[in-house]
Amino acid sequence: MAALPAGAQQAPEAGAGLGAQQPSAGPVLKTDKASAQPIELPVVVRDKKGDLVTNLEKGQLSLSEEGRPQTIQSLTKADGPLHIGILVDTSKGMSGAMEAERKAAGAFLDAMLPDGTKNQAFLLHFDREVELLEDFTSARDKLHSELDDMGSTSSAKHDDSAGPETTSNPNTESSSKHRNDDQLYDAIYLSANELMKDKTGRKVLVIFSNGADRGSKETLNDAIDAADHAEMTIFTIFFKGEQERSYGRDQFPRQTGGIGYPGSGSGYPGGGGYPGGNPGGGKKQPEPKTASGVDGKKIMQEIANRTGGHAYEAKHTSDLDPIYKLIGDETHAQYLLAYTPDKPDTEGNFHKIVVTASEKDWTVSAREGYYAPEK
After folding, report:
1. How sure is the predictor about 232, in pLDDT bands with cuts at 50, 70 and 90?
2. Is the model's pLDDT at 357 over the cut of 80?
3. Cβ–Cβ < 8 Å for 171, 163
4. Considering only CA atoms, which of 285, 287, 291, 261 is closest in space to residue 273?
5. Quick one: which of 323, 304, 331 has its CA closest to 112?
6. With CB atoms 3.0 to 4.6 Å apart as the test, which of 103, 110, 218, 292 could cross-link to 222 if both were Cys?
7. Spatial CB neighbours of 260, under 8 Å, sequence gap ≥ 6
8. Is 11 exposed, middle or buried (0-12, 13-18, 19+ CB in 10 A)?
9. Residues in Cβ contact with 178 at an 8 Å cutoff, skipping those fewer than 6 apart
10. Which H helix or E strand runs over 25?
11. Which secondary structure element, helix H or strand E, spans residue 87, and what is its range?
């Protein structure tokens, strides 16, 4: 199996990204020289209690593109093929969570890849290098085998006959010398550009990381732009790593970012949907940082929010299994919203989309926009 070429440049293609999809398989965007054709994008809606809305009607949503109101033509339950990517941060600081991550991710894949499914998944890990462990497959045993062997590239045994050769970032000379390097942005970029972009159907990426990035060639915006081109929805699971013991063991996984779950829905006891409120049980430790000093948790929030997913925080390793189950529930609750832009574009420009609900206490998750295909 060939390794991903870390830092590889995205090759421009006519009709790349959303325009490369087939209308019956999932999110699509097709245009011709004369007029715009319908766009379909996945959306998830929650009510004021945080419960997933499963009986949604198109009249309950409104959509604007570049600030201009658009007409929603249809809203249907998403049931096309699903492509899943699991990205795991295996840097030194995350080593204490690897066993729990293997089990939680494995159970998630078992649920998302039932026998006879057309769904597929790949497994990739990153630290000072980005390595594809298993390419797209529906074979759960192959994915479980790679999960069981997954570890840091600084200590992993590489066997060219058994798996992909690891390729480190060629533009970061010191990357091979630092076990704590986290090439998060490169991992997202390569997942989008090399693995997801040409697939049809819905595309979901799940990232387990502390959000720190050191050594990536690509920037955060590069990574998110690639995700937009590939039409990926990204769910992030923030785990502080070795700092986890500074928090109480009874903290339930908490969604972070701009969308909160008020009330006590979805099985979340207590006010605000989560028990406790603030972490306790020890001195608060600083959040992991990127090379530029940005808070890693905020990075994970931004990645999820801009791609229409959700950002979760695991206070303890025991939170990972319920978080993966929540991500599975959200994926199954996706709707496909279709509309035809009022202004056709064959120049390949990015178009900002905002989807809102008629119920003021409802929250909508959708991608930030789309790239139109070029002529």
Report:
1. very high
2. yes
3. no
4. 261
5. 331
6. 218
7. 272, 273
8. exposed
9. 128, 214, 215
10. none
11. strand 82-89
The residue length of the chain stands at: 375
Q: Count CB neighbours of 337 within 10 A.
A: 26
| Closest among 349, 348, 339, 311 to 68, alpha carbons compared | 339
> Tell me, what DSSP letter sits at residue 165?
P
For residue 142 the two structure tokens come to 């192959």
HSE-CB at 299 with a 13 A cutoff on CA atoms is: 28
Q: CA 68 to CA 353: how far, in whole Å?
A: 9
Inter-residue contact 74 to 58 (CB < 8 Å): yes
The answer to whether 77 and 335 have CB atoms below 8 angstroms apart is: yes
Lowest mean pLDDT among 63-77, 155-169, 342-356: 155-169
Beta strands in the chain (DSSP E): 29-31, 36-46, 61-65, 68-70, 72-77, 82-89, 120-126, 129-137, 167-168, 202-209, 233-238, 254-256, 311-313, 335-339, 350-357, 363-365, 369-371
pTM reported for the whole predicted model: 0.75
| Residue 236: closest CA among 315, 305, 152 | 305
What's the token pair of residue 39? Answer: 């766009």
* β pairing state of 202-209 and 233-238: parallel
Q: Measured between alpha carbons, how far is 240 from 280 in angstroms, rounded to an integer?
A: 15
**Could you read off the pLDDT of 290-334 as tens digits, one per residue?**
666 679 999 999 999 999 999 999 999 999 999 999 999 999 999
Residue 374 predicted with pLDDT over 60: yes
How would you classify the pairing of strands 82-89 and 72-77? unpaired
